[in-house]
Every structure is written in structure tokens, then in C-alpha cells.
Amino acid sequence: MSFLTIYKRELKSYFTQPTAYAVIVIFLLFSMIMTFSFGQFIKVGDASLEWSFFFWHPWLFMLLAPAVGMKLWADEQRNGTVELLGTFPTSTWSAILGKFLSAATVWLIALALTFPIVITVNYLGEPDNGAIAAGYLGSFLVCCTFLAVTMLVSAFTRDQVVCLIVSVFVCVLMVLCSYDDLVMQFSKMAPTSVVEAFTSFGVWDHFSSLNRGLFRVQDAVWFASLIFIPLLGTSAILSAKRA
Amino acid sequence: MIEVESLTKQFGTKLAVDNLSFSVKPGEVLGFLGPNGAGKSTTMRMVTGFFPPTSGDAKICGISIVDNPAKAKTKIGYLPESAPLYQDMTVTSFLKFCAEIRGLRGSRKRDAVERAIETCFLQNVARQSIDTLSKGYRHRTCLAQALLHDPEVLILDEPTDGLDPNQKYEVRQLIKRLGTTKAILFSTHILEEVEAACTRAVIVDRGKIVADGTPAELIEQSGTGSLTDLFRTVTTRDTEAAA
């Protein structure tokens, strides 16, 4: 139950400080600007929201998700409160889960606040709402993946800025390394096996299939492992730091 | 009851705590003295379960901190050296969080928080945000956190550090009062504190116990009637250690 206590504390701290508001507002603003400008939402009449709306999410998350996750352990280590957590009768895992889920909740709220676009497409056309739901799921999972990566990075450092820079770098790599235009460029330069190994860390394959309303086992496995492995790493780093 | 059994901690090639053994019975206040870097904080971190020992064990009320950390931690109240706190919380909400993580709910939580606020004289700042508090109040807030669950064992790392003379006096009286029923281990640099609050004291140097006894015995041992003289003869000075 201590995991719930930690979750509540973390979530509250996002909203007593400006972090969550800033990130949510910027995300909403940019996702709408992208949808209506480059996404050509009106002109194309994209009722599935696949290209006009969801397509932009990984690009925004790779920059904004680390801003939400960076404090999770960095702050705790800077303030020394990690020593309090470590001596409370609670496991490291409840802290990891509580913190991770609180950051994920901030993003769930951000995504939920894009609801006017769903109302708009339903008003203007007849979209497949199942596919839209799948698109949201894909977006959320990409976001959770980036948060998990950020959490792992934050376990290494007590400096939030270092954490932000390094995690943005990793997330940008995860977005670019499987982006079609770039993959075509890579494949001219490197052998197929190398390109395949590299692109398997990318989000697009898994994100796009969900975005098209497709539920595949390999995507579920990919997201589950890319979220779970960094969390496992976080736990290992935190205990290694005390040994 | 604290029983420390040949506790050892090695960081890389540096032996921070070297085969340390001692015990603190209920009703006893053990002063833990020693120069900076002697291994006092490291020992306390091992006893509280924050650092895993390289070898050896500490038993809290008969429960091993190595084998059964979750249960042993419920018996301990711990004030870390820097009195770490969550800056974004108010004193009351911080204490409520700590009480909840210790498994106190409902009226038991309310009573525990109220009692701790009273014991540590925090009534005036109970609703204030922690980042606006002065050092003395911060220290006492963290001390209050250690008392919430009325633990049988108290481990206080420099509880009077950074307090003004009035506050130091209050905290010493508090330690003395709590020490009549609990087992208390506290570290300090201030030798007068030993006579004022301890029933027994040990001096550690480079991870080993170099003197052990009641304040009266230690003063006798010094030959000159001064604890400072004893401290200076049995511990290594920085200048010597470097030479």
C-alpha cells in the first residue's frame, strides 16, 4: 500500500509546482498547432486523426516526456530524501512504481485534455472511434516508454539538467532510428542486420500499427519490455549506488 | 534494542567501518563520537538498512536488518544527517505522508502527526511550506518524522547540528526524556552533549571503536578530567592521517 502513498505524494507535487501545468499547456498548444498547420487536418479531412494528430505525438513526447520524468530520482538524490525512502519500511519497487505511475498520470491527463479534437472529428465526419482509441493507446505507450527511459537516467544523476539532456537525447534517438526516411538513408550505408538491430529500438513500427488500429502481439511485447527493462535497471542502479 | 555484530563496510579499497560491534539496550542513550569521516554516518546507514553491510549484521529488537529489512525498519525512527525533507510539502502534509508510509491510517495517523508536532514544538509552522522554514525548524520537522510511529529504537545522526543554543537544549532534553524507554543511538561532535544526554558513549576512529564507557568512565580515562583531551589522544587528526 505504500506504493499508493508514494504515488499520491508524487502526483500532488506535480500539481503544487508549475511543472505539470507548463508541460500540459505546451503539449496541448503544440499538438494543436501541428494538427492544424503541418498536419493539414482541415484540408485533408483526416477523420482517423492518424496523420494529422497522432503522428506528431512521438516528436512532442521525445522533448516533453523527459521534462516530467527528470525529477523523479534526481531530485530525491539531490535533497537526500532517498535516504528517508530507503529507511522507510517499503520496497524500492513500490517507490519506482509509485513514481512512474504518477508521471504517467500527468501524461494521461494531458492526452485526455485533447478531447475537443475527438468531438470535432465526430461532429465533422464519421470516424472509426475504435481506431482513435487505439491511437491514444499508442501515444500513451510511447510516452510511458520515454518516461521509463527518463527514470532510468534520473537514477544515475542528482542533476536534473543532465538527466533532461541525456534522456532527450535517448528519446530523440528512439524516434529517429526507425523513422522511414532516415531508415532508407541508413540502409544505403550499413548492412541490413545492423540497420535492423538499430531500428528495433525505434518507436515508429509499434506506434504506427496501433495508430492504424492494429493490435499486434509483438507491439505489446515491445512496449512491455521497453517499459519494464528501464524500471528494472532503475532498481538495479539505486541498489548499486548504496553498495 | 540495537545489537551491532561485527559490522563492516568497504567502499572500493577504503574500509569505512571495520568490524564494529556494540549494543544499545532500552533505556540507554549511546553517544556516537568521532572525527569527521570516522564512519559514524556509514554505520548508522547500515543499521537503518539504507546501506547493505559488506559483512556483519545489526539486529533491531532481535530482527536482522539484513535478512528481514522490512520488519526491522518498522522498529526504527531515523534522522539522517542532513535532515532531508520534501521541499514542496507543508510540515503537516509531510508528516502525514511519513505516517501513511509507516502504515498509520485514519485517527491513528492524525493523532501520531499531532503528537509529533507537539513533541518537536512545530505548532507555529505546521501549515507552512517546508522550503520557507529556517534550519532549526527543518531539523525538528525531520526529527518529528522519526518519532511518528513511536519506535522502540531511535537513530539520530547529529540531531543538534545547526540548532541555536536554546534549540540544542530542547533537543537534548527530548533525547533524555525519550531515552528512558527507548534505545537511542545518536552521533555528535559536541562533547558536552555526551555528559548532558548520554548514559554511555563510544568514540570511533577510522571505522573502529577506540573508547567505550559511561561519560564518567571516559572522563576518568582521560586522566585530565576532560573529554576533549581523551578525544584528541585516541583519534587520528586529519594532519596525521594524511602524513
TrEMBL record, chain A:
<feature type="transmembrane region" description="Helical">
    <location>
        <begin position="95"/>
        <end position="119"/>
    </location>
</feature>
<dbReference type="Pfam" id="PF12679">
    <property type="entry name" value="ABC2_membrane_2"/>
</dbReference>
<feature type="transmembrane region" description="Helical">
    <location>
        <begin position="220"/>
        <end position="240"/>
    </location>
</feature>
<feature type="transmembrane region" description="Helical">
    <location>
        <begin position="20"/>
        <end position="42"/>
    </location>
</feature>
<dbReference type="GO" id="GO:0140359">
    <property type="term" value="F:ABC-type transporter activity"/>
</dbReference>
<feature type="transmembrane region" description="Helical">
    <location>
        <begin position="131"/>
        <end position="154"/>
    </location>
</feature>
<keyword id="KW-1133">Transmembrane helix</keyword>
<feature type="transmembrane region" description="Helical">
    <location>
        <begin position="54"/>
        <end position="74"/>
    </location>
</feature>
<protein>
    <submittedName>
        <fullName>ABC transporter permease subunit</fullName>
    </submittedName>
</protein>
<dbReference type="InterPro" id="IPR051449">
    <property type="entry name" value="ABC-2_transporter_component"/>
</dbReference>
<keyword id="KW-0812">Transmembrane</keyword>
<feature type="transmembrane region" description="Helical">
    <location>
        <begin position="161"/>
        <end position="179"/>
    </location>
</feature>
<dbReference type="GO" id="GO:0005886">
    <property type="term" value="C:plasma membrane"/>
</dbReference>
<keyword id="KW-0472">Membrane</keyword>
<keyword id="KW-1003">Cell membrane</keyword>
From TrEMBL, chain B:
<keyword id="KW-0547">Nucleotide-binding</keyword>
<dbReference type="GO" id="GO:0016887">
    <property type="term" value="F:ATP hydrolysis activity"/>
</dbReference>
<feature type="domain" description="ABC transporter">
    <location>
        <begin position="2"/>
        <end position="231"/>
    </location>
</feature>
<dbReference type="GO" id="GO:0005524">
    <property type="term" value="F:ATP binding"/>
</dbReference>
<comment type="similarity">
    <text>Belongs to the ABC transporter superfamily.</text>
</comment>
<dbReference type="Pfam" id="PF00005">
    <property type="entry name" value="ABC_tran"/>
</dbReference>
<keyword id="KW-0813">Transport</keyword>
<protein>
    <submittedName>
        <fullName>ATP-binding cassette domain-containing protein</fullName>
    </submittedName>
</protein>
<dbReference type="InterPro" id="IPR003593">
    <property type="entry name" value="AAA+_ATPase"/>
</dbReference>
<dbReference type="InterPro" id="IPR003439">
    <property type="entry name" value="ABC_transporter-like_ATP-bd"/>
</dbReference>
<keyword id="KW-0067">ATP-binding</keyword>
<dbReference type="InterPro" id="IPR027417">
    <property type="entry name" value="P-loop_NTPase"/>
</dbReference>
